[in-house]
Amino acid sequence: MTRFAVRAALGYDAIVSLPQPGDDFEWRRHDARLSLVCRALEPHATHLFTTRSWRLGNALDERDAGWIEVARAMGVDAAHLLRARQVHGASVVVHRRGPAPAPGEPLPHADILVSDDPSIALAIQTADCVPLLMADRRTGAVAAAHAGWRGLSARVPAVAVGALADAFGSRASDLIVAIGPSICAQKYEVDAVVRDAFAAGDSSEAELARWFLPGIRPQHWQFDGWRTALDQLERAGVATAAVHGAGLCSATHPQLCSYRRDGAGAGRMAAAIRARSR
Description:
This protein has helices at 7-10, 63-73, 149-153, 156-168, 192-199, 205-211, 225-235, 259-262, and strands at 2-5, 15-18, 25-30, 33-38, 45-50, 81-82, 92-95, 112-115, 121-126, 130-136, 142-147, 175-179, 189-191, 212-214, 220-223, 243-245, 269-275. The protein is globular. It has a 6-stranded mixed beta sheet. The chain has a 6-stranded mixed beta sheet with strand order 7-8-11-10-12-16. Strands 13-15-14 form a 3-stranded antiparallel beta sheet. A hairpin with a 5-residue loop joins strand 10 and strand 11 (142-147). It is α+β, with helices and mostly antiparallel strands. The chain has 8 helices and 17 strands. The chain has one domain: CNF1/YfiH-like putative cysteine hydrolases.
């Protein structure tokens, strides 16, 4: 475990033990707040995964102020932070180089955002669902995707790969993907409704066995969203070595936001990405 003095970041006078992320991730500070960055993704796109120390992580704080905070950390103003009204589906919003969306314009209903515009940052929010950030090493295009179990049953990771290909000519073999903090299988019990949603699609029996681990109660399983996302990315053509997981469970670590742990009072974490100028 790595120890940091994070009085300012977490808002109380204490030394807090931070969980050790995956080998390709490291903790960073933005104006005394903690975030997580993927070193493998960093050369190709500015990005971050926020924690509970950001205003979005406090359900009592004004959400607009939290998004202004995220925009500032990404080097853009609020008008250039592109978000969506997430609906647990697989709809895509494409933003090409050009003017930012008009201020006050309603957020589109979507869970996948893709862009090649370095003046725009893309952002999604989570509180247990899987956040995915992608960058194309060849074209510079980027994507941010939100995938809970419904999104994973709709194959959001593969849809995001396809959206980059359709909009910007990206090849799956050129993509780098970071999977941020989300709930782990040990903390995520699901019932037959969830498993049946995957079985009704084109998931193989081998995939179902990897994703739905035996649970304690009959007709209940421990759902592994991390492995599900990885398998779907691989099936879409992304190299295994190009997928990097933070390996941090949102329901386990108090520095992270978890709806499963905290219920309606849970805050939210942002995953944001911005294409680099080329």
